[in-house]
Design brief:
This protein is mainly beta. It folds into two domains: about 90 residues, Ribosomal Protein L25, Chain P (Beta Barrel), CATH 2.40.240.10; about 90 residues, Ribosomal protein L25, C-terminal domain (RNA Polymerase Alpha Subunit, Chain A, domain 2, Beta Complex), CATH 2.170.120.20. The chain contains three helices and 13 strands; from the N terminus they run βαββαββββαββββββ. The strands form three sheets. It has a six-stranded mixed beta barrel. A four-stranded mixed β-sheet has the order 10-7-9-12, with no helix packed on it. A three-stranded antiparallel β-sheet has the order 8-13-11, with no helix packed on it. The radius of gyration is 25 Å and the shape is elongated. The two termini are about 25 Å apart.
């Protein structure tokens, strides 16, 4: 992957005064971590938004602070959701020679035949796995192909993932990443059984099933 560089300057403004900088088109941030004191920084909002688009929490980038360069991970991005814009970014400086722990995003790809053939539902049980590796060996994301899930009940576990031997996985290998579930029977569509003595059939009200969390 092409080297990603974020340009930044040191920031002395803190507290409520940072709001003025945001209105002028800048994003405050901080760099902390490997053998350095935390550094308050300032970045151009348009430039950094474009530069970080599509990157994950395990993407190694270079923070260039007025010529002082640090390899880093994106640890937290705060957003103003009403305006749909970044308002603050935390970066963790890392050593390229020391292993680190990180959560790797899981992305599904392909189409499961069970969805078309059996009206199955794709349920993703895990969105991240925790690993340890040298920064240069960290995968940006793990892509899971679900095109082999042909029947209801088919699943993919952590043990089925294709991961480099340079990466240590901490999640239970038996945990399920994704599974195919059957469609629940809608009782309202079934013919009510005839009650004894010609009495009216009992009406049972069904509650909505809570949706599982997606992240």
């Amino acid at each position: 992957m092409e080297k990603v560089v974020v340009k930044a300057t040191r920031r002395s403004v803190i507290g409520k005064k940072v709001g003025v900088l945001r209105r002028e088109g800048f994003i405050p941030g901080v760099v902390y971590g490997h053998h350095i004191e935390p550094i308050a920084i300032l970045m151009n909002r348009r430039e950094v938004t474009r530069t970080l688009a599509g990157l994950t929490a395990s993407s190694i980038i270079t923070i260039d602070i007025e010529g002082e360069k640090h390899s880093a991970l994106i640890r937290e991005k705060q957003r103003n959701y009403l305006r749909d814009e970044l308002i603050h970014i935390d970066f963790q400086a890392v050593s390229l020679k020391e292993k680190i722990r990180s959560k790797i995003e899981i992305t599904l790809t392909g189409v499961a035949p069970a969805v078309k053939n059996f009206n199955g539902i794709v349920l993703q049980d895990k969105e991240y796995i925790e690993v340890e590796a040298l920064p240069s060996h960290l995968p940006e994301r793990i892509v899971v192909d679900i095109s082999g899930l042909e029947k209801i009940g088919d699943l993919i576990r952590v043990s089925d993932l294709s991961i480099s031997e340079d990466v240590t996985v901490f999640d239970d290998l038996n945990e399920t990443i994704v599974t195919i579930s059957g469609v629940a029977v809608d009782l309202a569509e079934e013919e009510p059984a005839e009650a004894e003595g010609g009495a009216e059939p009992e009406v049972v009200e069904k509650g909505k099933k809570d949706k599982e969390e997606g992240e």
